[in-house]
Structures are given as C-alpha cells and as structure tokens.
Description:
- Chain A is mainly α.
- Chain A has a single domain, classed as ABC transporter involved in vitamin B12 uptake, BtuC (Orthogonal Bundle).
- Chain A is 74% helix and 1% strand.
- Chain B is 73% helix and 3% strand.
- In chain B, a hairpin with a 2-residue loop joins strand 1 and strand 2.
- The termini of chain B are far apart.
- Classes of the chains: A mainly alpha, B mainly alpha.
Amino acid sequence: MGKYDLLVLGGLLALALLPPFLTDYLERVVTSALLLASLALAQNVLLGYTGYPAFGSVAFFGIGGYATAVLMRDLSLPFPVALFGGTVLSGVLALLIAPPVMRLRSHYFAITTLALQLALGELVANLEITGGAQGINLPIYRGPGGYLLFYYLFWALTLISFLINAYVDRSTFGYALKAIREDEVAAETLGVNTVLFKTLSFTLTALITGCAGGIYAYWITYIDPTSMFDPVLSVKMFVALLVGGVGTVSGPLLGAFLLEVISETLWGQFPKVHGLILGLLIVLIVLIIPRGIWRKR
Amino acid sequence: MDIVLQLLVEALLLGTFYAFMSLGFSLTWGVLNIINLAYGSYIILGSYLAYTLYTSAGLDPILSLPISFTAGFLLGLILQSFLMNRVMTLEPFMILILTFGLDIFIANTLNLLFRADIRSIDVPYAERSHLIGPLIITEVKAVVFVLSLVLTGFVYILLHSTWTGRAIRAVALDREGARIVGVSPEKVFLITSGIGTGIALSSGNLYGVLQGFTPFDGGMLTVKAFLVSIVGGLGRVESALAGGLFLGVLEVFTGFYLGEGWKFFASLIAMFLFLILRPRGLLGGKYYGEV
C-alpha cells in the first residue's frame, strides 16, 4: 500500500464517524456509493489484478440477494445466517463455473459471464421458489439503528474488500494473479497453477459481490429479477472502476464515490432524462479517460 | 405430427428473419472485431422510424426499407468516424462498455420520444392468414420471410461479386495483407459499419411488422444477433442462415413445449454453452474477430 492508499484508507475509516452529520438523503447516497465501491473493488481483484473482465459478475449479486431472501422467507433464518448462506452459495457456484469459463479471455470471457447473468435473471423470473417475475418481499428491519445498519454493513464490506485488494497488491498470491494478467502462458511455464489462481480470484470476486447482494436485498426489502440481475449495474460498476483506475487499490473506491456524486447531482437536476445522461456519461468516460484518473505506478 | 411440421415451418420463417437481422452484427464483429451491444437498439430505432413514417405519412414499412437502410448507413458512418475509430485500439472489452452506454442512451432517448408503451405497425395484412394443406401461414410472417431471404441474397451478392465485398472479406481475413494489396482497412471499416447499421435499421422495419416493440427491447435482440453469429461463425452469410435457423427452432420449440417465458432463457443458455464449448461456431472460422 502506497502513501496515498493509506490516506484513502484513512478517509474510508473516517466514514464510520460520518452518519451523525448526514441527512437521511445523504446517508442513502453514501450507502449507495459504498455498495458500488464494494462491487468495483470486488471486480478489481479479477479485472485489475488477474486481467479477466467479468462483465456479468452482478450474477453473484443476484444469487447472493435471492439466496438471502429465500432463506429468510422459507426457512425463517435470521438475517446474518441467511446472508452467510447467500455469500457461501455465491462462492461455491463461482468455484464450480470458473474453470470452464476462464478458459476464455478478454471480451469472450466478458460476454460469457454477461450471458450467465442474464440467464440467471430469466431463470429466477420463471421459477416459483423465487417468486417469478413478481419477486420477493423481505421483512423490514426494525431493530436498533434502523437504516444505519445498512450503512455500516456496506461500510464494513467495502473496508474488507479494500484490505483484500491491498493484500492482493503486495502478496505472493497477488503476484501470481498479476503474472497471469501479464502473460498467462509464461506464468504457467514458471510453475504458477493458473487454473487454481484464476478460480480463487473469481471466487473472491463472487464472495464479495454475493455478500453485497444479500445486504442490498435486506436494505431494499423488495427484490425482483430485473433489479437483482440488472446489466446497468454491471456497467456502472465497470465505469466506477474505469474512472478510478483499474488495478490500483484506491482507484475503485474513489471512482465509485465520484460516479455516485456525479450521477446523484445530475439525477436531481434532470430526473426525466437520467437514463439518457447515464448512457452519455458512460460513452464520454470511455472516450476521455479510458485509463482512469488513478494511474498505475 | 402435424404440429411438429407447423412448428418447423414457423421456425423456418422466423429463423430466416433472424439470419438477416443478425448479418450486420456478425459482419461488424467479423471485420472490425467490434461486439456491438447497441446493435439491438439500432434495430428498434429502425422499428420506430418505420412506425413514424407509417403513422405520419402512411408509408408502408416495406416501402420504407430503403429509407431505413440509408438512415442506418449514415448513422453507421457517423458512429464509426466519431466514436468507434477512437476506441478500436483499446482493450476489446472497453468497446463492450462503450456500446452498452450507447445502448442505454438510444433506449432512453426513444423512451423519452415515444414513451414505454408497446407500439406496433398495424399494416392491413397484419391479421390475414392462409391455409396451405395442413399448415396455417400468417401473411405477415410469409412476407417477412420472403423479404429477409431476398435481402440476405443481396448481402451475399454484395460480399461475393463486388469489389467492395471482396475488400471487406479480405480485411476480415487479414488486415495487413489487405493493406499490402492496396485495400485500405480504414475505408472498409467505415463501409462495413455503414452496411451493418443499415441492415440493423432495415431489419427493424420487418421486426416492427412481425410484433410489438418497446424502446427497451434492444438488449434482447442483441443477444439473439449474438447467438446467431456464434452458432455459425462470423461474417458469412451462410453461417448467419444456419445460426438463424438454429435460433428459430430453439425459440419456436421451447415456446411451444415449455412456455413463452422460457424462450429467452433457452437462447441465453445456448449462447453460454456455445461460448464455452464452440466459440468458433459450428462451421469453424478464421476471421479476424474470432479467437
């Protein structure tokens, strides 16, 4: 972790002291930013350090969210247990699909994961246990702290993801991933078990993303296939990552906050055309700063 | 038995349309190595153009096919020169993000102009159908089938019997080789993008006659074009026909035996499996955009 990364970590830690000074609206904005940050940091392990763009990693967001919701509704499990279940399920599924899917590279890999995400959305929309297209209503959290709970849950998840990224950046494990990113054949020749490390990297991404989905489901209390497997969320996550800087520890976090601030300000001004502006924003960001503001050093 | 025959005919009619619809996607992917996630929105753009011309000027969507093609061709030229040329040197998946942004932009612009209601182009022959032996053929589907076949034939002739077409195929096979023999890849990119987008918009006319549409149907159509393109292999007309028929059979039979709700799921799973097992398609391939 560099000097600047420590500064950003300090800022992230300070966010824990912020809520008393926030209005309800701002509290929700920061919670959303933290959600986006955790997704971008999760993706960074895969794209940034391993070189595999999982366009459809939001698939695990949906799996985590739906598993948490179904466990709470059908088995009446308490939220922490259900969230744990949803997270583990995301990880196990990632473990299973990584070896075949990660034989593909670049945009072929990206599209394959996107197909998986959309397919799962369709599956969930057709199955009875997931409530079909109607979705699932979750119980509303009425415990201490109210919605502040979700602020802190996403904050903790973002902090954990940040530390995971910092670890990957400087560890032997991370060096193996970076070797795969730079030249997979060379890495294999030097004795890196590429299948194992790619699978671990993919699973790590899925665990964080699935956990975020579980927390989101309970936060929003109503989930349906369109919102949980939304490709627009995938794109927002990628744009946050791109704006911040792929393959850096702090980039994804800063990118997520920047994107959330920009979009919230614009939404507020022009509520009718927010989709239009989001699309335009994505195009402009790819055109203007394709390599991010937080450069690799 | 009769029902299987009926379903096969439906699959043939629909599949041929899918083949034509996907040609532009397959061509730009094969030649430029651009997977255009906004492609489906181009199609829907064509549907709304045809719809507007039909409701305001009474112009039949079949007669407005050349207008849609020209509009699409120009759009393709503009997007290629101002947008795609700038990002073609970046990581290929950056183009995915860019075109997805474009897709969101087009869908939301259409939503602003036309609202999210389902629109349909109610041509006078929309409801007519004919009994041929044991088969029931809707006139609209037959018309779209014939037109798709003819237009696909045009594209085949263009690619195989004109200088431009041969230049496109040369660039698809080997960019540097093409440059050595005097074909400018940049010009070919521009023309291919024009033709591809032209095909998308004009297939939008046919799509609008076949069924109702909303501004947000683009994503689903992109997936279909994608599936058609990888089943056969990129950039070739005969591959697109094979892919189109595959998708037609898949959709018609899943729709009938499992229910309409499973159709899109079946396409996505097929796409997923193809990518993992046969990313080069069933007919193999050696085009630039292929892995």
